[in-house]
Amino acid sequence: MKIYCESLMRKLEFPDKIERIVSLVSGFTETIFEMGHGERIVGVSKYCSRYVNHPSAEVVGDYLKVDLSKLKSLRPDLVLLTTGVQTQLALDLLRKNLPVYVLPLPRSINGVWENVMLIGGLLNDVKSARELVLKWQEVFFNGRETLSERPSAYVELWFGKHMRTVGGLSFVNDLVEYAGVKNIFSDVNESFFVPPLKEVHRRRPKFIIFFYEPEFPIDPYRIVESRGWDWKAKLIESTVECGKNLIHDGPSMMRTIQWLREQIWG
């Protein structure tokens, strides 16, 4: 079958029934398992095991690089990647005649759900994809806070040693706002950017949400103290743990928003 890939601006050809999938994006891997097609996955990134348990799948690389010989040996029908920092890897693999499909990096929760539907199309199972999206939406919408004055929150993400915050063009913004708080930078037309710490101090948010990776641990309480942020804000710590990861766009986001609501509302 031929499928147009908007991210690569070209038509790509795949088998009519895709049986052997390599997924280099943990959110896509988790989605495929949740849809009931985990047996099709033959290769994953080293991060996918955080969200699914599939010991028979070969680890072929991480988010930015792959073992090409190992990848080719798996004879994949489909290699899934996303845009952003994976774009160059996708183009390199495409030039090596690998069956690459690139899904867009979601800029909202609707983009996450759109990707689920696209995966359903690739796997000839739109029905399961739609059921998953409806389930996901029910979790998001049914618990949504309707208070006109939601408490303010500042989100600080540590990507390794690089500190960023969240603007309005990220699904992370939607995740925290559906949990019932107001991101103080939701009006910024960016996904992630270096936070203006003086502005955070001026706005004095009621919640400060930190995310960090295990390879580069931080101490949120020491950070807050070192900056002189002396108002009574509640600190929430998010990590890569399944169900507590703010930046993961797989189905366990349903657990993450429930966990976040518990942290906010008790």
Structural write-up:
The protein is α/β, with parallel strands linked by helices and 266 residues long. The chain has 2 domains: 2-139, 3-Layer(aba) Sandwich (Rossmann fold), CATH 3.40.50.1980; 147-265, 3-Layer(aba) Sandwich (Rossmann fold), CATH 3.40.50. It contains 9 helices and 13 strands. It has helices at residues 26-34, 68-73, 87-95, 109-122, 126-142, 171-178, 197-203, 220-226, 253-265, and strands at 2-5, 10-13, 21-23, 41-45, 58-61, 78-82, 100-103, 152-159, 162-166, 182-183, 192-193, 207-211, 234-238. Strands 8, 9, 10, 11, 12 and 13 form a 6-stranded mixed sheet that branches. α4 runs antiparallel to α5 and α4 (109-122) packs across α6. The model has no long low-confidence stretch (mean pLDDT 94).
List its traits.
266 residues; alpha/beta; Rossmann fold; 6-stranded mixed sheet; 5-stranded parallel sheet; 9 helices; globular
